[in-house]
Amino acid sequence: MTKQSAPSQPPKILAIASGGGHWVQLLRLRPAFEGCRVTYASVRPAYADDIPGERFVTIPDATRWDRVRLLKMMIRVAWLVARLRPDVIISTGAAPGYVAIRLGRFVGARTVWLDSIANVEEISMSGRKIGPHADLWLTQWEHLAGSGGAASGGPQWKGAVI
Amino acid sequence: MDSPAAPLKVFVTVGAQMPFDRLVQAVDRWAAGRTDCQVFAQIGPEAAVPENIPWTEFLEPPQFREKIDWCDVLVAHAGMGSILTALQYARPILVLPRRAAFRETRNDHQVATAERFRDMGKVAVAMTEDDLPSALDRLRSLEAGDRIDSAASPQLIDALRSFIHAR
User: Fold this and answer.
1) Which one in A146, B42, B67, B146 has a CA-CA gap of 20 to 30 Å to B82?
2) pTM of the entire predicted model
3) Which of the residues B84, B110, B120, B155 would you substitute to probe the A interface, choosing the one with the greatest number of A C-beta atoms within 10 Å?
4) In what order do the strands lie in the sheet with B124-125?
5) Residues B112-129: pLDDT tens digits?
């Protein structure tokens, strides 16, 4: 699979999340993106105000329980991933991040899923589904490292958003 | 004679996804006739309308931040967006967790979140709406958790940076 960016170019990142706490947690990861070319994607246009000067794309809000909106969201995210061809896709959940990470492999992206800090007792359902497909699968609670029932050995713990 | 304390400014928020009538209605009843507080509620979509307090369904992020800034204390569902924002603004926050049994959310993770963050000293919790009136009476003496800055832990940032640049 050809690489998207020449080694001398800064990595291209797609940082994608649903609204509310998912978006708030994604924003707290920004220092990790320094020096990179980042496109942010989330479900409310007004979130662009949180990241002045950065690229922001609005995607439809959808959960797995609404098939029609889910399809619209999947199409939009597929188009975004295909057009952007990111080197790295990072998501704090939920469904849009799942879709982006699953599709990311078709453009050679390396992917990160950071399970929400709200999931204190067990990994989220989306996390359990996407974890084995992500190159880096993270939980924010040390006691959940290695859980999630995955043959891959479950998520790693490398700290939290607070 | 002591002069009365300034009215306590209370911002109620339930997130943008679903209403949370159990919380909003309880605060509405508690606020009836009170002059020692000013309450404003963001009540979510298709919610029961409060009778005693000003409200709105949604707040766009800039207006949401204005309300957090304006308030002395937050009363909220136990959503991470609300909790993290309260901590970033160093506002005390009292949460009532949504429950799946009442069709307020899909699962009971808010209960676990509320308990864990209470045990870490970051939020106050009313586990049921019956606990709310006494918790609301004590709002003025609620302390905020330590203010958090705007970034994740250095450990997590470093782990992500290493991953991003390892190619």
Assistant:
1) A146
2) 0.93
3) B84
4) B55-56, B37-42, B8-13, B73-77, B93-96, B124-125
5) 999 999 999 999 999 999
